[in-house]
Amino acid sequence: MPLGADPDLLASLRADLDAARYTVEGLEAAWGPVAAEALGRDDPVPALLELARREPSPAGVLGALFVLGADRPADQVDRALPGTGTVGAERLGLIRLADGVARALVDLRPYALADESGVAAWWIASDPGEMALGGELPEEHVLGAGAASGTLAQILVGTGTGSVLDLGTGSGVQGLIAARSASRVVATDVSARALEFARLNAALNGVALDLREGSLYEPVAGERFDRIVTNPPFVITPRGADGVPAYTYRDGGFAGDGLVEALVRGAADHLAPGGVAQLLGNWEVRGDLDAARQRVLDWAGPLDVWVVERDLLDPAQYAETWVRDGGAQPGTARYRSLVRAWLEDFAARGVTAIGAGYVTLRAPRGTATLRRFEHLDGAVGSGIGAAIEAGLAAHDLQRALPDDALADTVLVVAPDVTEHRHYWPGDADPTVIELRQGTGFARVRRVDTVAAAVVGACDGELPVGAIADAVARLLDADPDDTRAAVLPVVRELWFEGFLALG
Ligand SMILES: C[S@@+](CC[C@H](N)C(=O)[O-])C[C@H]1O[C@@H](n2cnc3c(N)ncnc32)[C@H](O)[C@@H]1O
């Protein structure tokens, strides 16, 4: 029987999980904050020790079984799932019973999210991970809601009430997120097993997803969406090398960064006018950095495109990361042969670095006007989705504003911006002035005295041009030169969210 195919049993399971307080907080309470931190590093030992010290609680029993992958006596599991029982859980395909002991066949854990659309909590089932398996993952492994799922969720612009395509849905998590407001969510995957999990998770959480099997945009040929979200299998993987595993969850089977290219190129045929596609991706740098960036921008064709590169790895760092991710251990012969396969593959294409980050695409109502690639590493704050949305809106507003109209515009400093001045000891004038954001991309922007003074005076009273003129008078500078110098900076600061419309 397919996973979770019995609706009545699923309803019981849902009630049991609720009653067990099987939530993110409930699990943390079951094994404590130190064990929760250790689990974040894939170390189950503190949680197992802590659970052994305590009276078994329903959340603790379920967490041991479904998160840590530890066998549990059937009678304990029966008490933790009083409505479903171990027999029901086995019928749903979640556990196997043998000699009075229950063993999990899936990972099933709570997932919580807080964003502009509110707070949400679900249960997500997926294949057991490396920690539960204690070894390398099988190639057909279906991923749960991991770090990359969270990253994509964080950068999404408001979904609105339109239609959403979640391409490569895996466990269905992005579909669940989108379904909170979207009128229709189509979730696709090339893996039938992933779709089984997505179906189970949608039903368990009472969410309607239109699930379709197929590669890339095949299942939605001829259809357009207001939003496309995808955390695709972007990991660049050597093709044709002996012993290199082809994990469906991270490798789409293309050479180099071909999968990300195909996704970006294909978006134009599937976005409704004004629609936005957002994806995580990796891209190759073959020598020249500027050419590599232009190459990614060119994939967007007729769409507006904004690439935020969050990391730039050398080939060895990249290979090590992804060889370890599959479970191969440093120091073993297998690890070394896999790293070699990755490095030879990169060398064959002249790859000198690999970029990683987010791509936002938008179907313009006329011709595309936004072509932006920026490298932004370091910590980011909350509200990146809102920052991207505000950047797109600022871009559109600014396009209609030649410099003289911009000079007549009233702007305000965003509430999360602070100014930082750095001085040589004893000097009266600062050597460096920085504007810093407390939220969104948490940008740090170096500005000169004039720009700092103009920004500082943007309090919603005077238009930017009048402020620039006043600053010029104060500094005994030419007003036209001051405007010419400061207006492009104002445009950029507005796009970046330091300034907003007053
Ligand atoms: C990194 S997982 C993302 C899962 C989920 N969307 C998330 O955010 O956690 C990538 C998913 O893409 C699927 N996939 C792999 N190749 C694909 C292809 N050619 N077309 C569509 N989906 C594909 C995998 O099966 C996997 O479920």
UniProtKB/TrEMBL annotation:
It comes from Amnibacterium setariae. It comes from the Bacteria. Residues 19-104 form the DUF7059 domain. One of its GO terms (cellular component) is eRF1 methyltransferase complex. PROSITE patterns: N6_MTASE. Residues 402-499 form the DUF7782 domain. One of its GO terms (molecular function) is nucleic acid binding. Belongs to the eukaryotic/archaeal PrmC-related family. This is Methyltransferase domain-containing protein. Residues 148-276 form the Methyltransferase small domain. The keyword Transcription regulation does not apply. Keywords: Methyltransferase, S-adenosyl-L-methionine, Transferase. InterPro entries: DNA_methylase_N6_adenine_CS, DUF7059, DUF7782, Euk-Arch_PrmC-MTase, PqqD_sf, SAM-dependent_MTases_sf, Small_mtfrase_dom. One of its GO terms (biological process) is methylation.
